[in-house]
Amino acid sequence: MTVHTHDVPTWEVLRLVEPARIGRMCIVDHGTPIALPVNFQLLTRDQRHQVVVRTGPNSLIGRYTGPASLEVDEIDIDHLSAWSVILRGTVAPVGNDRTLPDPEPWLEGRDRWMVMQVDAMSGRRFSGVVGSDGYSVEWQIADC
């Protein structure tokens, strides 16, 4: 399969992420990156973007403050198409801010509100054409 990759402009990254509700937040735990599934909502205020997460106070993310990223993607195997976006920034707990949208986590006991201030975002689209030599996909980070 031949795979065509296309960088996604910032406006399209936001259009893809805004309706999404589940992604993987990546943090550093004991010097090692770890990706954890989260329910989230994207919030835009004054041209600044934030990722809002509600988690357990004793979870890895709930105890964390520091650099983080959120990866959101969609893969359509039947149509040989996919997109993947990464938002990068710093995550920290926030107090009781009633202006934040509720990400409505699936699990109970998620009462620690966390916000990641987005500093950078990137995205790629992938489209495939079946070939006689099997399948391969090239993944790389592209800054928007």
Describe the structure.
- This protein has 144 residues and is mainly β.
- The protein has one domain: Electron Transport, Fmn-binding Protein, Chain A (Pnp Oxidase, Chain A, Roll), CATH 2.30.110.10.
- 6% of the residues lie in helices and 54% in strands.
- It is built from one helix and seven strands; from the N terminus they run E-H-E-E-E-E-E-E.
- Strands 2-3-4-7-6-5 form a six-stranded antiparallel β-barrel.
- 23% of the residues are buried.
- The mean pLDDT is 89.
What's the pLDDT, averaged over the residues?
Answer: 89
Query: What's the Cα radius of gyration?
Result: 16 Å
The separation of the N and C termini measures: 27 Å
Biggest pleated sheet: 6 strands, antiparallel, barrel
Number of strands: 7
Q: Which bin fits the share of residues in helices? A: under 10%
